[in-house]
């Protein structure tokens, strides 16, 4: 059964590789091949390991081991599939791709040090904004699911959502376990606040798999804006302060810095 699943997955992967090779370049196909091969490996090994575990004589131990296996493989497959999806969606036939450092743990959002660099070097005539996002009651979520399950089933989903939100309008960065930031390099204050509302609402509606299926997550969002040609060195600090204000006002809300 496991072998059949892996074979079917590999057939789908080969179709994707063919499209990539024809539309883009063989070098891109080779890079994507590594990701897809890993996905097939996990599809195959998952079934094999589950069959082996069922041979154990202790039912409670079997249940425990299967649970741990489910979390581990789900996390690995989600990260691999996310990498492959974002890689394909990010391909452009007529322009070179500029690699950006990613947060090492999940490899989805940009690394935190890039935020200061982007603020200093990338901005447009409409102004710029930073959104500071903090997961509400994160310790309680960790306690309820365990840190392992949160890392495998919850945080990657949130990170992928934010990566999709900022596509073509800015960048999203991983600040810490429960904190993320967004930089919008060319926007009005009204637009930045609307993005904040969309992020808050979107995260509250996310669904998580396996053991986290019944988990719901909310966030508090702070927004700081600087008009074109205005100082921007305090944007991150101001967005963080606005986020703290949102938490103080009851969480699951957005607050602009300065009450604008």
From TrEMBL:
Enzyme class: transferase
Positions of the GGDEF domain: 126-259
Cellular component, GO, one term: plasma membrane
SUPFAM superfamilies on file: Nucleotide cyclase
Pfam families: GGDEF
Record-listed E.C. numbers: 2.7.7.65
PANTHER family for this protein: DIGUANYLATE CYCLASE DGCM-RELATED, REGULATORY COMPONENTS OF SENSORY TRANSDUCTION SYSTEM
UniProt name for this protein: diguanylate cyclase
Species the sequence originates in: Usitatibacter rugosus
